[in-house]
């Protein structure tokens, strides 16, 4: 390849307003056929992996199920195990919470996926201190916010100890293994006490790939110490460079090389035969993603009040911030400060509620002709703003097809993206080698 290799992954969205459900081309978010279509498209495009997000409780807004959630989404590792049977090389990544699971059981489930897929499994490690989500679990909201990453770090370390407890190359034959092939894991820490032997041998890639998405200082440090991939939100060239430099710099204190951690921001795209057509399409997608009801819901989350009597095409509410009407979402932080910032922006640009929400909730990362988008992606990677991108299409399940058909061949022509898989495991695709 002529430059740094571009890494690509495909995200199947669900708990946000990325997906345009009203488009006639949009299909089911829960039928297996939808997952299969998107995964097969990603594999046809020679992507590194297919990525599933997951929530542990349906969010609520004003006491009702939040309209931006998918109701009925199957459990991620079960879906990925089924996808292992209909794909051959594509990595399979699932989001699983380290706060409301136990290391031995989750390590076993992830190792099972890694074996079923012949070394293509990945775990996106997430945490939560949200008591609302915790009500679905025996311990409830017991975990303080400051303890999220201490538990997650101990969890990941223990899972790795279990995965590494079998001797390399050892597999059971006739229900027996040679003496000493399986080590006993003994661990007594702040959050977990475990003593026993793991039931599964090492997988073809040694152990599952670890993905992490935290952006706080502690989250970045956790990723630098433990992650193989960061699912970042820093998709612009300037922000991407700053994030890339910061996280790669942190690797040194853990004895790691820069190539051992891949930084892959989430990215959206809008294509057109001309740049003008692509811009028009991007604007229309944004208006579909932020309809009148969605616009009001976003402002209600910040203002903490029922604003259903307000016109989405009218001005922001002239009200103080209330106590809150949404449960289960990532906390906004200082809502009063956010409200003040939004109000100043709306006044400066003369924006209605809906126009403001479109302005502040993000835009398509890459907009233009296929040639332009391929060039933008290559630029980000060559200039160290990212190692690649996790693409989030706005249509399910066919939204990735156009990108694979029109942009991937151009990246291949540039010599920065594979034309065929050269390895079998996800670690092979990412170029990160086996675990230490």
UniProtKB/TrEMBL annotation:
Keywords: Flavoprotein, FMN, Monooxygenase, Oxidoreductase. It comes from the Bacteria. Residues 27-383 form the Luciferase-like domain. One of its GO terms (molecular function) is monooxygenase activity. Signal peptide: none annotated. The keyword Flavoprotein applies. Its EC number is 1.14.-.-. It holds the Pfam family Bac_luciferase. The keyword Protein biosynthesis does not apply. Belongs to the NtaA/SnaA/DszA monooxygenase family. This is NtaA/DmoA family FMN-dependent monooxygenase. It comes from Nonomuraea mangrovi.
């Amino acid at each position: 390849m002529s430059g740094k290799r571009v890494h690509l992954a495909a995200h199947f969205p669900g708990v946000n307003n990325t997906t345009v459900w009203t488009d006639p081309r949009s299909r089911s978010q829960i039928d297996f056929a939808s997952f299969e279509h998107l995964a097969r498209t990603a594999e046809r495009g020679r992507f590194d992996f297919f990525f599933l997000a997951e929530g542990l409780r349906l969010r609520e807004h004003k006491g009702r199920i939040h309209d931006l959630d998918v109701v009925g989404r199957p459990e991620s590792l079960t879906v990925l195990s089924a996808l292992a049977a209909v794909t051959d090389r594509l990595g399979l990544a699932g989001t699983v919470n380290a706060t409301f699971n136990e290391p031995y059981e989750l390590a076993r489930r992830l190792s099972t996926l890694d074996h079923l897929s012949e070394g293509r499994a990945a775990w996106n490690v997430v945490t939560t201190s949200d008591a609302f989500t915790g009500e679905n679990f025996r311990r409830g909201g017991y975990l303080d916010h400051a303890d999220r990453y201490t538990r997650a770090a101990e969890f990941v370390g223990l899972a790795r100890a279990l995965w590494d407890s079998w001797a390399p190359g050892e597999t059971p034959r006739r229900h027996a293994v040679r003496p000493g092939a399986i080590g006993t894991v003994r661990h007594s820490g702040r959050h977990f006490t475990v003593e026993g032997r793991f039931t599964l041998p090492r997988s073809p890639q040694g152990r599952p790939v670890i993905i992490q998405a935290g952006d706080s200082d502690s989250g970045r440090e956790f990723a630098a110490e433990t992650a193989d991939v960061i699912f970042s939100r820093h998709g612009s060239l300037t922000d991407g460079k700053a994030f890339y430099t910061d996280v790669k710099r942190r690797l040194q204190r853990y004895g790691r090389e820069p190539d051992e951690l891949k930084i892959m921001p989430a990215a959206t795209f809008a294509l057109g035969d001309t740049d003008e057509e692509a811009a028009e399409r991007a604007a229309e997608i944004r208006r579909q993603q932020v309809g009148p009801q969605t616009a009001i819901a976003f402002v209600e989350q910040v203002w903490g009040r029922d604003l259903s009597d307000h016109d989405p095409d009218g001005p922001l509410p002239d009200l103080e911030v209330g106590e809150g009407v949404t449960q289960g979402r990532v906390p906004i932080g200082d809502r009063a400060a956010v409200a003040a910032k939004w109000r100043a922006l709306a006044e400066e640009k003369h924006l209605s509620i809906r126009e403001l929400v479109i302005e502040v909730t993000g835009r398509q990362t890459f907009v233009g002709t296929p040639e332009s988008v391929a060039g933008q992606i290559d630029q980000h990677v060559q200039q160290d703003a990212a190692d690649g991108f996790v693409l989030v299409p706005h249509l399910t399940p066919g939204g990735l097809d156009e990108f694979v058909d029109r942009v991937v061949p151009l990246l291949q022509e540039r010599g920065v993206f594979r034309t065929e898989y050269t390895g079998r495991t996800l670690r092979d695709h990412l170029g990160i080698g086996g675990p230490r």
